[in-house]
Amino acid sequence: MERVRKAARSARFLKRVFSKDEIAYCMGRKSPWQHFAVRFAAKEAVFKALGMKGVSLLHISVARDANGRPSVLVAGKPEPGIALSLTHSDHYAAAVAVRWA
């Protein structure tokens, strides 16, 4: 969490890793660093689950459905066949992505 907090202080880092919607969502939260950290973990988990070469972390984004559940977008489009679970606390953030396609 602390590594993401330090890196996220740089606007350049944020723009290279997170979508505009993700940045807006995280910055609107009480503890934005927790939300950036869990989204970073989610991007890594999705990247590994998809096994896609040529896809950067910026292409992967975390959205929320009407019920608040996390979902995955790749290049701005919903990615079917991926289940995503996020968790975070004051000091840790973790994400699991499972592909069932």
Element layout with pairings:
Layout lengths: L1 H7 L2 H7 L2 H8 L4 H19 L9 E5 L5 E5 L2 E2 L3 E7 L4 E7 L2
Antiparallel strand pairs: 1-2, 2-3, 4-5
Using only C-alpha atoms, the radius of gyration works out to 13 Å
Question: What summary fits the major beta sheet?
Answer: 3 strands, antiparallel
Strand content: 25-35%
Rounded average pLDDT: 89
The assigned CATH architecture is Alpha-Beta Complex
Any descriptors?
single chain, 101 residues, alpha+beta, Ribosomal Protein L22, Chain A, three-stranded antiparallel beta sheet, two-stranded antiparallel ribbon, 4 helices, 5 strands, globular
Summarize the model shown.
The protein has 101 residues and is α+β, with helices and mostly antiparallel strands.
Structure description:
This protein is of the alpha+beta class and 101 residues long. The protein has one domain (2-99): Alpha-Beta Complex (Ribosomal Protein L22, Chain A). It is built from four helices and five strands. Strand 4 and strand 5 form a beta hairpin. Helix 1 (2-8) crosses helix 4 and helix 3 runs antiparallel to helix 4. The model has no long low-confidence stretch (mean pLDDT 89).
